[in-house]
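ASSEMBLY PREDICTION REQUEST
Request ID: AP-0331
Submitted by: J.K., bench scientist
Number of chains: two
Total residues: 221
Priority: normal
Notes: Please return the full assembly, not individual chains.
Input sequences:
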Amino acid sequence: DGGITQSPKYLFRKEGQNVTLSCEQNLNHDAMYWYRQDPGQGLRLIYYSQIVNDFQKGDIAEGYSVSREKKESFPLTVTSAQKNPTAFYLCASSGTVQETQYFGPGTRLLVL
Amino acid sequence: GIQVEQSPPDLILQEGANSTLRCNFSDSVNNLQWFHQNPWGQLINLFYIPSGTKQNGRLSATTVATERYSLLYISSSQTTDSGVYFCAVVRGSQGNLIFGKGTKLSVKP
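STATUS: Completed
Returned structure:
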């Protein structure tokens, strides 16, 4: 069954802790993206990757890091430098950067 | 950067009614998508429509690229249509979507 999976569904972070959100796709898409959604708002781009071993910062990259070692995987790390990490995080992928983007179910990150 | 404005911000309908949601954008775009976000947060693709008109069941969309707007029509609304509808555009070669703030639709039985 093709699609995009994200885990965990809920994640709790303690002060000063780094946490990693998983995003996997089996659609054979080249491009992958991470977005952040705050309550009552649209999505904002954190990082994107057009191809394996390459990624670019989006509008709100500070306090986040990513890697793209495999085509199907694009994990996002929320570092301790991100002072306001509580949000809903959505991963997306597309065949190329100009094609339709499809979204995973999201991860809700809460700070303890 | 490009601005995306959606209207109305909130909309309450009685089941069976029709509605039109609008998306204005401030510059030319390569791509425009409409999404429905359900109460669980899942973003569901509705249309990829940089220009022209498309229909899918009770939903249809029209984008007039030269006038920088897109419209989403929902006919014979159902309670399951409730949620937030987002318009998002792509400008340039990077591919990242720029989202509006959405229209929150509530359909009452």
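REVIEWER COMMENTS: The first strand of chain A starts at residue 4 and ends at 7.
SIGN-OFF: pending second reviewer
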